[in-house]
Amino acid sequence: MILQPIRSVGVLGGGAWATALAITAVRAGRSVKLWARSISTVAAIKDRRENPRYLPGVTLDAGIGATAHLAEVVGADALILAVPAQSVRAVAGVVAKLAVPGTPLIIAAKGLERGNNKRLSQVVGEVAPRLVPAVLSGPGFAAEVARGLPTAVTVAAADEAVAATLALALQNPAFRPYAETDVIGVEIGGAVKNVLAIAAGIVTARRLGAGALAALVARGFAELRRLAEALGGRPETLMGLSGLGDLVLTCSSPQSRNFSYGVVLGEGGTPDAGHPLAEGVYTAAAAQTLARRFHVDMPIVDAVASVLGKEISVDRAIDSLMARPLKRETE
After folding, report:
1. Residue 328 domain-assigned?
2. Interior angle at CA 142, CA 240 and CA 51, nearest 5
3. Are both 71 and 215 inside the same structural domain?
4. CB 192 within 8 A of CB 283
5. Number of other CB atoms surrounding residue 199 within 10 Å
6. Cβ atoms of 159 and 1 closer than 8 Å
7. In sequence order, which residues have a C-beta less than 8 Å from that of residue 81 and are 6 or more positions away?
8. 161 in helix, strand or coil?
């Protein structure tokens, strides 16, 4: 499939990541309009050139328009869907009724849909079959991207030409997207790393040491890779930005909502006390279900899901992981 050059981009979402991607698209030379549900967010962008709730202190380029009316955004050459993972179905379903068939829809959320355990591109395929789904994932925090710090990500679409066109449309001197066709690998990498970041936050809060954290990341990456391969993803994809790169970032910084949520759990907080936008909370049970369905061993994900489900305590989860039968590292 050959896309026309991308001159305009519509960003769907009013959060930090949506705002950062709108800034990125403007820096890439695109005409940009952002849609947000919140009237106050739209007003702040228009009047103060800022999103004070989600991205305080960052001045937005004058080229970014803002609206609370979805119909004013969906006519763009390409759309970026940057709403929470559990809102993708609802928003994409509305967009499907308004957008021009064949419009690329870049999913910038990372997660699995709660209840049916589906990847977000599968969700979009169901509710917006006439749009062209793509996925943007990789190591990047919204505040850093918005401030123009160097960032590299992956843009994946089933069609190589589509992925390349979208990557080119978002490229600017500080933002480097790599085109990829392994949508499954990119999505699973972005989703499961959130669960592992919760575990990393627990390890950090319990002061189990740098060695324990390194072991968690290494063994967690093995779990992530096994699941992606079982679903049809390519192992080399997981070795890249959307797999290992994103995992290392989110397992090592309090800027990660999932890591911070894990810290709360590790400090004795209940699963109900964490960050409401920690996507790993919803993805844990979904990843666990997929792993069991495809006979993939994922003990760290199992432990996190059990803690979140209030089936076991954090201490018991740690003890159970350390007491697992010995085996070869590659098994």
Report:
1. no
2. 160
3. no
4. yes
5. 31
6. yes
7. 12, 13, 88, 91, 92, 95, 105, 106, 107, 108, 109, 124
8. helix
Locate tokens 């209030």: which residue?
310
Q: Is 193 a catalytic residue?
A: yes
Which of 97, 110, 193, 327 is catalytic? The answer is: 193
177 and 191 part of one domain: no
Long-range CB pairs of 208-213 (<8 Å, 24+ gap) are 208/318, 213/251, 213/252
| Neighbour-count burial of 89, counting CB atoms closer than 10 A to its CB (0-12 exposed, 13-18 middle, 19+ buried) | middle
Query: Which neighbouring-strand residues pair with 179?
Result: 155
For the chain, first and last CA: distance in Å? 40
Between CA 248 and CA 140 the distance in angstroms is: 11
Amino acid at 88: V
Pairing of strands 175-180, 8-12: unpaired
- Tell whether 2 is covered by a domain: no
**What pTM was estimated for this model as a whole?**
0.94
Triad 257, 176, 23: Cα angle to 5°: 65
Which tokens is 95 given? 């967009």
Give residue 216's domain range: 184-322
Tell me the pLDDT tens digit for each residue of 15-59. 999 999 999 999 999 999 999 999 999 999 999 999 999 999 999
| pLDDT digit string, tens, across residues 185-205 | 999 999 999 999 999 999 999
Q: What is the CATH number of the domain that holds 195?
A: 1.10.1040.10
Do 39 and 106 share a domain, yes or no?
A: yes
Q: Determine phi and psi for 259, rounding to 5 degrees.
A: -60, -45
Please check whether residue 133 lies inside any domain of the structure.
yes
Among candidate residues 181, 213, 242, the one where a domain is terminated: 181
What CATH number is attached to the domain comprising 117?
A: 3.40.50.720
Q: Please, are residues 178 and 152 in contact by the beta-carbon 8 Å criterion?
A: yes
Both 66 and 212 in one domain: the answer is no
Q: Is residue 329 part of a domain?
A: no
